Amino acid sequence: MIVTLFLGLQSCDERENYTDGPKVLDIVSAVQLNGKDAEVNHLKGSITVSLAGDTDLSNVAFDAVFPNGVTVMPETGTTLDLSSPVDLAVSNGVTTRHYLISAKLLPSKIAFLGDGATLNDISDDDVKEAGLWTQQVYGDKFIYLPYNQLTEGSLDGVNVLFYMYDNVGSTAQPAALLEHLNVISKFFVQGGKIVAGGHGTGLVEELGRDTSGLRNILGSGTGGANPDTWGVGFANSELGNIISQGCQFYANRMVYVINSGYKEDHNALWNLGSLDDPKFVSFTNLYDAEVIGAWDWAVDGQGFGGIVYWKPSGRFMGHIIALGIGGMEWHMNDNRVNPYANNVRTIYKNSIDYLGSK
């Protein structure tokens, strides 16, 4: 009976991706395909990656990391035709192990939401400017979706949904959008990716993903003249570095986003004052969400969250990056030139591109 039990347990744990001979260790430590980290599953003997929708699968760069004395075929540094799965043979000179490399293409469209029949009909100046910028940057990948045209079919092929919203007098989400919230909810629950800016950060609550009740630093006034230069500070984290990459820094992890002049001051921030220190860690542990940035003067104190990444959690398979720092305006109400406008656009682009790669 003991022998039978032992053999049964051994059978349950046995991997299926070895040839005859002694088992070898998990010696492939990392694989990149077109520069993107692939998921290596040693138990299943699989290597998988999701690539941008316009990737040519017949010509994918392959790089692998493994110890000296180990050989792989196909060789690292070559290109693969991943139109169909490719067998990777890994040998340590004694035995050979096989992995199956496969790739899937992500949807490629970047969809922008607005209240106008066209981009030029959008009522708010900041939202309109954000939409025109998105169209310019993403070109053929860009589509514009008015709220009243939101359907499940309209989101086919959409990789990232960009929802920017700004309003005077109220921070509530527009009724025209909420009429189609079920469409966005299904998209998000099934793994859709959303970048929400300004007052649009309230979408995280409407979808039920944010139950913290901490997004309570809200502004919707008409604004006015202000002599100060406002900035954003980024968390000292891998994601903080990714989202701020390419910005013009004035200090370590600090960037300016708006100069002196008219400001709307439409903040939509999470107040973390009630959380235990370190507050960013507590927020993550409680809500599966990572604080990426806050006001520059407040980021080290960790009392506020102004840029937050909502990770897949529970029934929500999707991702949201919410950018609610009021100084990150897209259009200056007094028509001045904001010398830090490129920082705002870089942060948004990095957010869209980061989610687009997930």
UniProtKB/TrEMBL annotation:
Database matches in Pfam families: DUF4960
Name recorded for this polypeptide: DUF4960 domain-containing protein
Record InterPro entries: DUF4960
Ranges for domain DUF4960: 112-355
Lineage, top ranks: Bacteria, Pseudomonadati, Bacteroidota, Flavobacteriia, Flavobacteriales
